[in-house]
Amino acid sequence: MKEIRNIVALYDRFRATDTACALATVVRIEGSSYRRIGARLLVGADGRYTGGISGGCLEGDALRRAQRSIHAGAPSKRVYDTLEGEDREIGIGLGCNGRIEVLFVPLDFTDPTNQVEVLRARMETRRPLLLVQTVTAPPGQSLTGALSEVPLGFVQLVRGRSEVQAITDDDGQLIERLFEVLRPELRLIVVGDNYDVLPMVTTAHYLGWRIHVIGRKRKFSTALAALVDGLYDYGEVSRLRVDDFTAVACMSHDFVRDRAMVEHFLPQRPAYLGLLGPRKRALKMDAELRQATALRLLDYENLYTPIGLDIGAETPEEIAAAAVAEIITVFRGRVGESLRERGGTIHAR
After folding, report:
1. Is the four-CA dihedral 56, 57, 59, 60 of positive or negative sign?
2. What pLDDT, in 10s, does the model give residues 61-111?
3. Are the C-beta atoms of 295 and 263 separated by less than 8 Å?
4. CATH number of 187-332
């Protein structure tokens, strides 16, 4: 979602100066690719751009083709193919061995349903959405570049991932449509106000997460305030609720405060509940909660304590990296092992 926010911001600058622009979207992948389906690149007629559809090897050619689409005033497609050794002159062969199909759509500022406006209207979603666009039109027909939302269960998707499906339309003609799953931004709630909170927040902010911090407001710095979406005193915790895309990290270094936060968040069953500190601390907290409440902390399947992946982290910055990496593995359904130990492809296909 961070990429979409950046695209919307640049689009607004283009619109303010009436600078024509086009949106490039990865709509199909075969073999290896740095980016996945749904990766986007917004390009202006003046050469400014944001986003990305590869690791940098396609962008130069994509900029030129986006500008051609702007001048033509119509969507177009380009297939970059190195499976058979083609397209090496543009550099894709340096890092990938795959076939990547990119759709270029010029944007009409007067159209309230153009692709960027459709994305803008869904940036604040807190539930997964399913977007659809036609990527191969019937013979004799042109692509419209229309992007719309359909109900999440409209089609069956393998492993719930974005994919292109062939469909027969009402006239019996075969068309291909990309069904793209758009997931909400990950929201991180950090508990604590000590010096190690800022590295955690900085790392999450760089990833484009929505961040809320609970602590003693008098201890919050201006640097911290500039990075977060909300600052709350411990007594204001009731204002925060979790959903399926929320992670909670308790880092107050204060046993009593962390226990109070666990009492508030555990019944809401966050997808990730991390506790900083040794496991014996969690054992003590679990015993006290069992005695005073009906909560069973150590029985919670989404509890992660000690917090973070085992990377030998020592400094606050390294601990932040370990914790953020662990949160990513949880929401991506991965185990966090070294890629050299992974059999098969990096991304599920």
Report:
1. positive
2. 788 888 888 888 889 888 887 655 554 444 444 445 667 888 999 999 999
3. yes
4. 3.40.50.720
User: Model confidence over 309-327: pLDDT tens digits?
Assistant: 999 999 999 999 999 999 9
**Given a cut of 90, is residue 214 above it in pLDDT?**
yes
Count of alpha carbons within 13 angstroms of residue 228, beta-carbon side: 22
Residue 51 host element (H or E):
strand 49-51
Other Cβ atoms closer than 10 A to 146: 15
Work out the angle at residue 64's Cα, subtended by the Cα atoms of residues 166 and 91, and round it to the nearest 5 degrees.
80
Name which of 29, 61, 24 is nearest 40 in CA terms. 24
Q: Which of 81, 83, 26, 17 is nearest to 44 (CA)?
A: 17
pLDDT given for residue 140 in this prediction: 78
Q: Pairing between strand 230-233 and 210-215?
A: parallel
User: Is the sign of the CA dihedral 193, 198, 203, 208 positive or negative?
Assistant: positive
Q: Which range (78-87, 123-132, 272-281) has the least confidence?
A: 78-87
- Three-class SS of residue 165? strand
Query: The tokens of 42 are what?
Result: 């917004």
Q: Using alpha carbons only, what angle is made at residue 45 by residues 39 and 49, rounded to the nearest 5 degrees?
A: 35
- Rounded average pLDDT over 294-323: 95
Q: Give CATH 3.40.50.720 domain extents, the chain.
A: 187-332
Beta carbons within 8 Å of 17's beta carbon, 6+ residues apart:
none
Q: 22 and 40 in contact (C-beta within 8 Å)? A: no
